[in-house]
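ARCHIVE CARD
Drawer: 12
Card no.: 0347
Subject: one protein chain, sequence and derived structure
Cross-reference: see card 0346
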Amino acid sequence: MSKLSRLKPDPIPTIHPVPEYAADAGRTAVYERTKRGFSVPWMGVVAMAFAHYREFYNCLLQAMEPVVMTQAFADACQKLRFAAEKEAESLGPVAICSKLTKLGYDDREIEEIKNCNEVFSSGNMPYVLMATLARLLLEEHSWDGKGSAKMYNAPSITFKRPVLIELHHADPTTAALFADIRQTLGLPFVNTDYRAFARWPSYFNPAWTDLRSIILREEYEHAVLRVHEAAVLLAGSLPNMSKITPQQLIGCATQDGQLSEVLSVVRLFQWLLPGLAVNVAVFRHQLV
């Protein structure tokens, strides 16, 4: 089994995600295929950043499309989510439902927040596996997983696309919170998940404050490392139904420009997504 160290690029590359509303017809079609294949209602920043490199992303998506229909992929997503949930629970998140009730939140509103969390708790897993497979192939590891190619009937997407608070929507308090997220995580952008939770500022402020204190503890990085290792193991074990080789994906990435640039962007997301999975799981446990 291929070994991939947990690696944050330095310097962090500039990413060029094309949002769904700004995508041309070709990209829109690719975005719809991505969402349909992953059974998610939104394009993650990872996929939009990858799709900036058209040949690379088309090649990667074509290789993944038959795989995401398999029972092996559904099982891998479930196991990866379980790993993130287990690590989050071990970090001891603070329960905040009573605090929300005191602020005036009723059961319906808390349920809405939980539903928003569920979109990301389940939907981030395909993106983690995609970024991990992309890095494995670009770093010239062969994808020779022996997982079963038995088909899986994926449920239709029941969740709506989350409402996002963009930076230009944010009041000074939320803008400061977004800045703190970027600084704490060491990233130049704020992931979709946080922008969705910021729709409820009086919920998200205490939720982030608790998560921030967890991130600053030494055991947090060990927890994220274990999720990273689970992702590498699970991604590598998936059946390679298109028989894609590292050389094929590298060749496509090279058509888009500098291979080193594409690889750096892939490494960035493969580094940050296991942490994002743990963070969303922490938010979930806070609401128990």
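Annotation on reverse: The chain has one domain: 20-286. The mean pLDDT is 94.
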